[in-house]
Amino acid sequence: MSDLENLLAMGFEQAKAELALKQSGNLEQAVDWLDKNADKTVDDILAESSTASAQSDPNVEPPLKPGEQALSLVCNDCGTKLRSHAAAEYHAGKTQHINFSESTEEIKPLTEEEKAEKLAELKRKLAEKRAGASVQDKEDQKRNEEIRRKSTKESQDIKEDLQKREQIKEAEKKRREKQEDIAAKQRIKAKIEADKEERRLKAAKEKADREGRAAPAEPSKPSLATTSGPVASKPASAYTEARLRFQTAGGNITKTFPAETTLFEVASAVSQDMGSDVQSFVQNFPKKVFDQVDFGATLRELGLVPSASLIVK
Question: What is the pTM of this model?
Answer without folding.
Answer: 0.33
